[in-house]
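Researcher: Here's the sequence for the chain we discussed earlier.
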Amino acid sequence: MIGSDTDVALDGRVLGKPGDREAAATRLRALSGRSHLVHSGVCVVGGGELLRGSETTAVRFRELTDAEIERYLDTGEWRGRAGGYAVQGFGSSLIAGIEGDLSNVIGLPLPLVASLLGRLGALSNR
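Model: Thanks. This is the structure I predict for it:
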């Protein structure tokens, strides 16, 4: 079994998922032109073992105009998304750069998951 969750932090403050359009707009305005961190935690359970790990990726937003923010909000893609955006969709247009694992920003850090599963396999073969 694999469990994972992702969140966005700006200036050390966790932003969480916006509950409504206004909260999403507030997050996007705060992220505009700035860098933030995307943190994911992963837990893998199997064969009586539990392994866990975390991944952090830095993401830099472009400077966004109010019109760009409104157009993005109109997509509805922000719903249920940490930080109010989804990099794998229309949100990719908001991004100026990523330093680290893109799959982490999408929401499941695949290299970390593969490593944990490999370790779990090695444990169950002993």
